[in-house]
Structure formats: C-alpha cells, structure tokens
C-alpha cells in the first residue's frame, strides 16, 4: 500500500473516504480478519511450573529409590526421600511462580480507543474493533492503532523508535514511496504501536492485528522455541550420568555380595544404601536455592528474572547485542553543538565575550524558541515536556542559556505561520512586538534555509549578504555535523519593518544546531566493565550508520571491521555471501539500519559460532531476537509489551549497568554451584566407597540407608547452602568468560572429587577397622563410629573448597559467616542424633566413649591436612589450586 496513491489505496480497500465503512460491512470484515489485537505467548500454567520441578534425572532417581524402599518395607527411608523431593519442588515452584507474577504485573494491556469514520460520521470506539478499510483520524499525542495509509495530513511526524529503532521522529508524506522501500523509509504509512508527535492526519486501515508489522514481528517471536540454558543442560547431563552410575554400581555390589554368600536381606539393604549414597539428594535443593537467591539479589538491583536458570546463563555470556535508542542512549534529543559564523561550539556551554552571550547565539536561540510549538515542563520534570523532540530540545537549550521562552512569547506574540511540511522543509513564524516591530523566525532543513536566506550573521555581529561561496561553506558545515551523527537544523530570522512568512529573501542565516540522543551517563563505564570481563558489546540498531557510529564511539564500543559499521543492505550481501561474509560480520561491533529479521539472523549466526548471546532491547523490533537469544533482556519502563513478553529478564530501571551487575551475579552463581557440586559429589563418593568396600572386605555395613540420608540432607546440605551463599571473587569481572563448551564438572573437577572422596573413604574405613579390631565393638556400635567419622570429615571438608591457595585459616570460606553457622548447626544436630534417644533409635546409633570420640575427631581432621598437602604437591597434572579449577 505504501507504493500506491491514496485514491488507489481507498479503491482497493473498497471504502469511500467521505463516508467510511458501514457498520454491517465492518462487522463482516471483522469476521474475516478478526479483532485488531496482538496475540501474546501463552503464560506458563501453574501445573506446568509444578511439573517442571520434577524434570531432572536426580529427582527421577530419588523417586525410584523411594519406591524401592517402600517395596522392601523401609518406610522411614521412603518418607525421608519423599520429603526431599517435595521440598525441592516447593522451593523451585515458589520462586518461579513469584517471578511470573512479577512479570505479569509489569505487562500492560495497552488498550486504546480511536476516532473512526463509520456510516458517514466519526465515532470513538475501542481500537480492537478496527478492520481494514476503516478511516481513522489521528492527532499529536495519539498512538497509531493499526497499520494505516495516510490519505490526508498536516505537518505530520511520527515516533517509530519502538518499531524501527529510528531515534528521530519521522516526517510523513502523502506521496507514494517505491515498492521496495524498507520499513523505516515508508513515509506514506503509519504503523501500529508508533505515536504521532506532530500534526494531524486521516488514514485508512490497511492491516490489523497479527497482519500488522508489529503482528508479523510478534509471530516471529512466538515461533522461536525456548531452549534450555547451559546450566540446565549440564545439570541434566550430570544427573543422567549419576543415574546410570548408580544403577550399575548397585547391581554390581549386590551381585558381588550375593556371590560371596552374604545375606540376601543385607544385600538389599546395601543396594538401597548404595542408591541413596550415590544420589546427591541435596543437589537439586541447593541448586534451586542458589539460583533462587541469585534471582532475589538481582531483583534487589532492579533486574527481574522469570526463569531461575537464566541467572546463570547471564554469567556465561560472551556477546551482548544491544539496541541503541533508549538502551545506550536516553531516548531524548538535546542540542549538542552549534555552528555560528565564528566556528562550532558545544552546547549548553555557550561561547562568551567578557561574560556576555554573543549576539548571534542569542538571536539563534530566541528564533528557535519563537518558531516552536513545544511545551516545556520545569527543569526538575523533563519527562513532562510535550511536543516535537527537536522543538523541546531548542526550548531546553534556550533555558540553559537563561532565555525565558514564556516571556519571549509574551513580548513577541505570533501573528502568522507557515507550518512545516515535507516539501517546504522549513517552518516560519511571524511576530509583532508591542512597539510595532516585526520579526520572522525560521527553522528547517539546512539545504533549504541556506538556499532561501539572503543574508548571514557575521562573526563581527554584522549582517552580510550570502554569496554562492559562503552558501557552500555553510553546506559543508552542515555536512560535517551530519556525518558526525548529529541531526542538523538551520535557524534563521529577521527583525525589521517587513515580516511576511511567504517572503523569505530577507532572512538572516543565524547558524546551524546539531542534535543528538545522548548516551546514558553510566553506559560508558558499563561497556568498559563488559570489555574487561571479556564480553563483546555489539550495537544493533535501526538508526542511521553515522548516528550509530557516533554513539558507539561515545560509549566506548570500538568499530573493528569498518569504522562506520555495517548497514542493513550490506549485511544482506554478507549473509548471501555465506562463509565469505562471516569474518566481516564477526569483526564488526556496529550494525545499523537493520530489520527485525536481520537481528534474528545475527543472533543465530553468533550462536552457531558457539557464542552465548544476550540481547537487550525495548522495542517491538527487538522481540524476535530477544526470544532467540540465550538471554533476552528487555527494558521495564520504556519497553513495549511485546519486548517484555519475549525477554528472560526485565530491567526495572532501564539501566544498562544493571546488566553488568547481573552478569557478575551469574558468574558468582556458576562458581558457587560448581563449588558445592564438587563438595556434594566428593561427599557422596566417599559414602558410596565406604559402603561398597565394607561389603567387599567383609566388614560390617558401614552406613545404613537412613544414616546416609541424614548425612546427605544435614551434614552435606547446610555447608553446601553456605557455599552457595558466598559473595564470590571480587575480581570476577576481570577474567574472561568461561568457554561455552566448558563443563560444570570437567576432568579437573573430577580429580578434586576423587581425591577428596578417597581421603574421606580412607578415614571412615579406618575408623570402622579401629572400632572392630581395636575397641572390639559390635557391628551396630562400629557403624556409629564410622558414621560420626565420615560426618565430621565431610563437615571439615568444606574448608577444602576455598577459592585460593592462600592461608588455610584466612580465605574466602573462613570469611563466610554462613559456613561457621552451618558447622555449628550441623555439629549440634549430630550430637542430637547420638544423644537424643528417639533420633538415635531411628538412626540406629549408640553414643561413643570418650576414647572413641578422640579417634573420630583425629581421623575427621585428616582430610583438611591431606587436602592442603595435595595443593602444595599435586599428585596429578590437573590437581591445581581450587581457584584455577573454577576458571
């Protein structure tokens, strides 16, 4: 429709511009095209949230162990395991449900009403009732309710940043544009979700609902699948490995015991004990709480995360694709530079002479304030300014230079006006002072005003005629300002006996004003922090290349492949070139004039190269890429509903540095998860080996199933919780992102797990041998000794999880108050397990003698000593200090 004249569009849509559609025809079309509404992704149901908590091999293994325990009459074991499963599900569900409710609270319905021509008269009705062919009337401040072809207009301008990424309001026109014009330059059209910033118009609806440009983009978003995060994948993989390891181990040990003539019932108990020992029951709970705690801490910093696993994914981010308008910039225009006869100057710092403003600058600012329809709020409430952004910026600049626009309007009342239109490319107002003096004020496109003005303000304050040579100099000034990323306006005026808005030959060119959407003040520091963290920041915008390049330079995003970045048309050529275009795409940090489809392809291209991609944005045009990215980050205040719907995380303060804090938190969470997984698996390995070797060596069953559950859910879990609550390395953002392919538990981590697992196994078996051979204790009493030894050894083992190879007594673990609290709690619970009769009876424990306690404590401290020795003299090439393992 954008390539057709208004009359042809009306004819094709079968509507009379004077009468509009009839009510009957509108109803018929509504049945064909449906309501004018944008579909939203179906929210996750409560049942789905609950079921999601059970999608884990570890949970499946726990369920199987509980079923086996019930089958063999071990009801206490089954109840304990069931409590673990329910507790994990409850924590995970509560956390994700709260996040979902918070996300729902910031989504708005966006319902609007429109003035529509039906049955020969205008009516106000819900925008959802619009159908193709409806005639709609719009004025400044209105949201565009559907895609429209303009059929009448006056000085029309629209803000399309949410749809195209174009930061400046777009001038509209009645004339058709070429059929192959990209969305951002279809000046004859208005699109659903954009806003009228100046003028008024009448348009005919060409598309509604999901057939609009916003609807098309939303459909792209809804078709992008939700992929599991890297952490989810790794925990699933680890759970699967543990599942098969546990089944194999239980079968093997039970078979060995039976072949050796051991009691069948004892072997069944041993099989259950091995299954319980091999499963890190605390792992799902601790992982859930660690991620939930990360979500809570991020919410405290204005980052709302909907899915827990998304917290960790941020920490592994290697590339951030960021929109420009409203994300890196303030999404408001300011007058940044002015070119006068004596040169170019920064604003608002005006050039002065002996403390006074030069006459040429004063006249320019006054003309910009007079030739103006904007309304400016107080300096303390800039968000309440109203009108064309360029005009608002001119008023602000006048105020910054102590020019009272209200008093100026009162002194020079307007008597006539030539409004701006796309053909004249300028606006002129006439004014009359109380003493009868007449004045013209004019602003517009530099090429137009330079051409029509007869004079220019000279550097000495005089008025000099404009010659062709001087006009060319001004054109070059305008070109230089434009190529530096500024939006340029020329300002002219005249004061004298004649002031006719149609006679412009006496206008005096006062200067050029350059406008820009300034970077947010905290963005350069945030970009620098990302770069220090080894994260590449890439600007992807719908704005012009020159503007994007200028902003990228100001915020510290280096252009690499090309100094000015890559525009959308060249990007299509690079995509078409296949492998030949890959290098240039991967080397560029600035992409301008890109379409939603191109953003989506960029994200997919980076993901195919193995990158973990975060995508930030606030507009409808960002939504498909937000959904496709590993982490979609939407703006809460400026963001559209469609963008927030697509995102994994919403920044409630719209602050780019919040992303940096979230990345740091994600890295801390991954380190903490790796730390407590190593801790839990080494503890579980020791329990498995103690039970298995005791059977193979003909010793009494070293640990009973319920005792192992007690270890896994008490002495293991609370220290693991404390490790999960660690603050992390202060320099965590000064190291490179871990490779996307790096495993949560790799070869080096397994080395640590095996080393510490063997150490704790050795001391537990040693205590069992001492109890039987030295103290002559019964099997029941000997089991108590081995239980307490391995329990205390596991508690003290938490100090082997320190982050550096520094002092054994002064490190990040010993400085963590939660570690000490967990140790005190766990020791108290152990003493209760031994000395409180009902608990001791349930766990089949008997209080040891003082001599036995001495052996237990001495043996339990050995893993710390051996762990320290192993750090100093590693017994294999992978056993480096734990800090290295984390990186």
Structure, described:
Strands 10, 11, 12, 13, 14, 15, 16, 17 and 18 form a 9-stranded mixed beta sheet that branches. Strands 8-24-23-22-9-19-21-20 form an 8-stranded mixed beta sheet, with helices on both faces. α5 runs parallel beside α10 (282-300). The two termini are 56 Å apart. It is elongated and about 120 Å long. The protein folds into 4 domains: 1-211, Calcium-transporting ATPase, cytoplasmic transduction domain A, CATH 2.70.150.10; 239-297 and 667-886, Up-down Bundle (Calcium-transporting ATPase, transmembrane domain); 314-330 and 520-661, HAD superfamily/HAD-like (Rossmann fold), CATH 3.40.50.1000; 334-516, Calcium-transporting ATPase, cytoplasmic domain N. It has 887 residues and is an alpha/beta fold. It contains 32 helices and 24 strands.
Radius of gyration over C-alpha positions, nearest whole angstrom: 36 Å
Amount of beta strand: 5-15%
> Roughly how many Å apart are the termini?
56 Å
Number of strands: 24
Domain module count: 4
State the low-pLDDT regions, or none: 105-110, 877-887
CATH architecture of the largest domain: Up-down Bundle
By helix and strand content, what is the structural category? alpha/beta
Largest sheet properties = 9 strands, mixed
Helix content: 40-55%
Question: What name is given to the CATH topology of the largest domain?
Answer: Calcium-transporting ATPase, transmembrane domain
CATH superfamily grouping of the largest domain: Calcium-transporting ATPase, transmembrane domain
Number of helical segments with 4 or more residues: 32
Inertia-based shape? elongated
Q: Class of the largest domain, according to the CATH hierarchy?
A: Mainly Alpha
How much is the average pLDDT?
83
């Amino acid at each position: 429709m954008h390539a057709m004249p208004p009359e042809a569009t009306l004819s094709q849509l079968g509507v009379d511009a004077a009468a509009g559609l009839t009510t009957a025809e509108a109803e018929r079309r509504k049945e064909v095209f449906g309501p004018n509404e944008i579909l939203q992704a179906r929210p996750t149901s409560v049942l789905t949230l609950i079921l999601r908590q059970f999608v884990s091999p570890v949970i499946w293994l726990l369920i199987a162990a509980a079923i086996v325990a019930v089958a063999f009459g071990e009801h206490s074991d089954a109840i304990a395991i069931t409590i673990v499963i329910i507790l994990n599900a409850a924590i995970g569900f509560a956390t994700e449900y709260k996040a979902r409710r918070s996300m729902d609270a910031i989504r708005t319905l966006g319902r609007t009403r429109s003035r529509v021509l039906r049955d020969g008269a205008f009516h106000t009705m819900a925008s959802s009732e619009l159908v193709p062919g409806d005639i709609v009337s719009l004025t400044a401040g209105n949201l565009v309710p559907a895609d429209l072809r303009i059929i009448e207009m006056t000085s029309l301008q629209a803000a399309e940043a949410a749809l195209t990424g174009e930061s400046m309001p777009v001038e509209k026109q009645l004339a058709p544009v070429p059929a192959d014009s990209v969305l951002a330059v279809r000046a004859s059209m208005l699109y659903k979700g954009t806003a009228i910033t100046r003028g008024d118009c009448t348009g005919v609806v060409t598309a509604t609902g999901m057939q609009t440009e916003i609807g098309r983009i939303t459909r792209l978003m809804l078709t992008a699948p939700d992929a599991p995060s890297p952490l989810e994948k790794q925990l699933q993989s680890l759970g699967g490995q543990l599942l098969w390891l546990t089944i194999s181990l239980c079968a093997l040990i039970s078979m060995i015991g039976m072949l050796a003539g051991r009691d069948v019932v004892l072997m069944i108990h041993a099989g259950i004990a091995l299954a319980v020992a091999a499963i890190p029951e605390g792992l799902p709970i601790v992982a859930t709480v660690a991620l939930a705690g990360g979500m809570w801490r991020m919410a405290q910093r204005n980052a709302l995360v909907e899915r827990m696993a998304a917290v960790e994914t941020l920490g592994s981010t290697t590339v951030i694709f960021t929109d420009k308008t409203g994300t890196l910039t303030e999404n408001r225009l300011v007058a940044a530079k002015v070119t006068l006869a004596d040169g170019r100057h920064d604003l608002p710092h005006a050039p002065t002479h002996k403390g006074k403003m030069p006459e040429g600058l004063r006249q320019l600012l006054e003309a910009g304030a007079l030739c103006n329809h904007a309304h400016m709020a107080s300096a303390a409430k800039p968000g309440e300014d109203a009108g064309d952004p360029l005009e608002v910026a001119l008023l602000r600049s006048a105020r910054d230079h102590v020019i009272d626009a209200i008093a100026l309007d009162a002194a020079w009342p307007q008597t006539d006006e030539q409004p701006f239109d796309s053909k004249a490319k300028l606006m002129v107002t006439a004014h009359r002072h109380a003493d009868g003096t007449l004045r013209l004020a004019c602003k517009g496109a530099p090429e137009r005003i330079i051409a029509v003005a007869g004079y220019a303000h000279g550097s000495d304050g005089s008025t000099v005629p404009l010659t062709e040579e001087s006009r060319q100099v001004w054109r070059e000034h305008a070109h230089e300002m434009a190529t530096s990323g500024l939006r340029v306006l020329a300002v002219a005026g005249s004061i004298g006996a004649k002031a006719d808005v149609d006679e412009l030959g006496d206008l005096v060119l006062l200067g050029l004003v350059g406008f820009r959407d300034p970077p947010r003040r905290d963005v350069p520091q945030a970009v620098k922090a990302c770069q220090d963290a080894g994260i590449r920041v890439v600007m992807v915008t719908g704005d012009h290349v020159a503007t994007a390049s200028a902003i990228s330079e100001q915020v510290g995003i280096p252009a690499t492949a090309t100094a000015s970045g890559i525009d959308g048309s060249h990007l299509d050529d690079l995509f078409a070139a296949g492998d030949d275009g890959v290098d240039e795409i991967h080397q560029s940090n600035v992409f301008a004039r890109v379409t939603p489809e191109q953003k989506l392809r960029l994200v997919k291209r980076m993901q195919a190269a193995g990158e973990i991609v975060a995508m930030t944005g606030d507009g409808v045009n960002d939504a498909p890429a937000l959904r496709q990215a590993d982490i979609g980050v939407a703006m809460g205040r400026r963001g559209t509903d469609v963008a927030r719907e697509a995102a994994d995380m919403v920044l409630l303060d719209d602050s780019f540095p919040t992303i940096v804090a979230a990345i740091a938190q994600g890295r801390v969470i991954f380190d903490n998860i790796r730390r407590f997984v190593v801790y839990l698996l080494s503890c579980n390995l020791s329990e498995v080996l103690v039970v298995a070797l005791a059977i193979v060596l003909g010793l009494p069953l070293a640990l009973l199933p319920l005792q192992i559950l007690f270890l896994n859910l008490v002495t293991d879990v609370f220290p693991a919780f404390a490790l999960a609550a660690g603050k992390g390395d202060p320099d965590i953002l000064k190291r490179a992102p871990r490779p996307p392919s790096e495993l949560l538990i790799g070869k080096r981590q397994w080395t640590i797990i095996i080393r510490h697992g063997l150490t704790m196994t050795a001391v537990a078996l040693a205590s069992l041998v001492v109890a039987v051979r030295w103290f002559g204790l019964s099997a029941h009493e000997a089991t108590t000794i081995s239980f307490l030894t391995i329990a205390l050894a596991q508690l003290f083992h938490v100090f082997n999880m320190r982050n550096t190879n520094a002092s054994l007594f002064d490190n990040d673990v010993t400085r963590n108050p939660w570690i000490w609290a967990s140790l005190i709690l766990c020791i108290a619970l152990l003493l209760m397990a031994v000395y409180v009769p009902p608990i001791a009876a349930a766990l089949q424990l008997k209080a040891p003698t003082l001599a036995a306690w001495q052996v237990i404590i001495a043996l339990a401290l050995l893993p710390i000593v051996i762990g320290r020795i192993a750090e100093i003299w590693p017994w294999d090439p992978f056993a480096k200090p734990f800090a290295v393992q984390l990186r």
